[in-house]
Design a protein that fits this description.
This protein is 55% helix and 9% strand. It has 540 residues and is α/β, with parallel strands linked by helices. The strands form 3 sheets. A 5-stranded parallel β-sheet has the order 2-3-4-1-5, covered by helices on one side. Helix 5 packs parallel to helix 6. The longest helix has 20 residues.
């Protein structure tokens, strides 16, 4: 009967275990010197060799002819343990036998000496699944077992174990297997099995496996069903990595702030029976890849993708700032939680895309940071254009006749300034609710409101005169659309259109110095020459 690769090529000696040399070397020395602990705890992520090392250790301590700490795999004990004929090594699945009664059975059995081996070994896999009562029943036995009993506990979640259990064991932490070590092992298996694989394909399998050797061999086994030669395209097809165009499209919509295009893509995917939770998860991983490209120089070793996709990620990352990417990831993770408990997954996904494409809809810190980052990026790249989107839309919708200015309007634009500097005068002055005008500015132009804080105003004829000692106001109010925003706020409060004037310390000083600046420079030069005793005849 066919046997899958990860079972067929499961290591039988410590030297065959990939990527765990820091553990296997210690175990070999302990077996060689006879300093074998009564209880071991193997921790680490899935597929890193915990159960494999436990089985090798159980054979090595009972082997009749060990070779430098490794089992010989030739004696009757080794063969009996491999075939299951010898029952002195017991492997227990704690997920299925997690009650107090199972531990009590072990406690009763350990009083009997082993039938064939030197040690009775209990391998308890997924030990974190035991109940509190089972842990308590195991404590005393684990601390002082009989001399002929050894315990090997294996778990992927060591933080769930009671401290009293961990402290009674010799702990070994299994690391994730590196892609290089995985690739070497898969090349060896390919030679033994008689098929070939591209180096790019093996590297891609190793990255997909995420440190788990068993996962890598399972994926390699699937790829062999497509032919004797494995390519990167084969791996992508088997692993379900094809068809990422919709993710790049959604990310482009986010970069362009195009919520309509994003909703069209979501609608198309929903119509093709795409699960919204899976789509949200894939999009989170997509933005994670953009984050890696944005922050890591050699991102190819971290990304799980083909070379062509890596190029696409690099190109698309240029459309985002790091703050934008982090904002999108944070918002999608929040939406993922809502999708799991929400009534309509589609609506939750659509809401997430609208928020991503329109950060102005959100007032949280992440959205504000993204908007600030967008402004900084536009200023650096020179793509910033003054004016609000509403103005651009109105300008685009305006007819050619409406865009043409009358001669009077052109003349006024050429001769008048948006704000006039006026000196103090003793004329009748009208009242204006300036506090209400400033309140209106908080809705449209917060920076201008900050500059005008502490100012006052009054009406003089067809002018609203602003009184302020702020030295920056004169230049600031002439910048961009600030003057227009003040006029609109005044119109909303008074219902009338006024021109703007500015009166203050700077305005009065400039008004007094203005006549001096208009003095004829030739007359000034002749006057200086006369003071020096030089007569100049201007007629000659």
């Amino acid at each position: 009967m066919y046997q899958v690769l990860y079972r067929k090529y499961r290591p039988k000696v410590f030297s065959d275990v990939v990527g765990q040399e820091h553990i296997t070397s210690t175990l070999l020395k302990e077996i060689e010197t006879g300093k074998i602990s009564h209880a071991y705890l193997f921790t680490g992520s899935r597929g890193t060799g915990k159960t494999t090392c436990a089985k090798i250790l159980s054979k090595a301590v009972n082997c009749l002819h060990p070779v430098n700490g490794n089992p010989c795999n030739e004696c009757e004990i080794c063969k009996g343990l491999d075939s299951g004929a010898i029952l002195d090594v017991v492997e227990i699945d704690a997920a299925s036998n997690n009650g107090v009664d199972s531990i009590r059975d072990i406690r009763d059995e350990i009083n009997f000496t082993p039938a064939s081996c030197k040690y009775r070994v209990y391998i308890i896999d997924e030990v974190h699944m035991l109940s509190i009562g089972a842990f308590n029943a195991l404590l005393k036995t684990l601390e002082e077992p009989p001399a002929h009993v050894k315990f090997i506990l294996a778990t992927t979640e060591v933080h769930k174990l009671p401290v009293t259990i961990v402290s009674r064991c010799q702990r070994f932490d299994f690391k994730r297997v590196t892609p290089e070590a995985m690739r070497g092992r898969m090349e060896y298996i390919a030679q033994c099995e008689g098929f070939t694989a591209d180096e790019e394909a093996l590297s891609l399998i190793a990255r997909i496996a995420d440190g788990g050797m068993r996962d890598a061999l399972s994926l390699l086994d699937q790829c062999t069903g497509h032919g004797k030669h494995i390519t990167a395209d084969t791996v992508c097809e088997v692993a379900g990595m094809t068809g990422k165009d919709h993710l790049f499209s959604l990310a482009d919509s986010a970069a362009e702030n195009n919520s309509g295009k994003a909703l069209e893509t979501v609608n198309e995917l929903h119509g093709n029976s795409c699960d919204m939770e899976r789509l949200c998860s894939d999009l989170i991983n997509h933005f994670r890849n953009l984050m890696i490209v944005k922050t890591v120089k050699s991102s190819g070793d971290i990304l799980v993708c083909t070379a062509d996709e890596a190029r696409q990620y690099k190109e698309q990352s240029g459309k985002f700032t790091l703050e934008n990417i982090l904002y999108c990831i944070s918002l999608l993770q929040e939406s993922m939680a809502n999708i799991k408990k929400g009534v309509s997954r589609r609506i939750e996904m659509e809401m997430a895309m609208i928020k991503i494409c329109s950060p102005s809809l959100s007032s949280d810190n992440e959205a504000l940071l993204r908007r600030i980052s967008d402004l900084e990026h536009k200023l650096k790249t020179g793509t910033f254009v003054a004016g609000t989107p509403a103005e651009k839309v109105s300008e685009e919708k305006a007819t050619p006749e409406a865009k043409q200015e009358s001669p009077d309007t052109k003349a006024e634009a050429q001769t008048s300034l948006p704000v006039e500097e006026v000196p103090p005068q003793d004329e009748s002055e009208g009242y204006i609710d300036w506090a209400e005008v400033l309140s209106e500015l908080t809705k449209t132009n917060m920076p201008l409101w900050g500059v005008l804080t502490g100012s006052g105003a009054f009406i003089r004829g067809d002018h609203v005169i602003i009184v302020s000692d702020n030295p920056t106001l004169s230049a600031f109010i002439r910048t961009g659309t600030n003057a227009r925003d003040v006029k609109e706020a005044v119109y909303r409060v008074t219902g009338k259109k006024y021109r703007l004037g500015l009166q203050g310390t700077n305005a009065a000083t400039e008004a007094q110095e203005a006549p001096k600046a208009k003095k004829d420079p030739l007359s000034e030069l002749i006057g200086r020459a006369k003071d020096m005793g030089i007569n100049i005849d201007v007629n000659n």
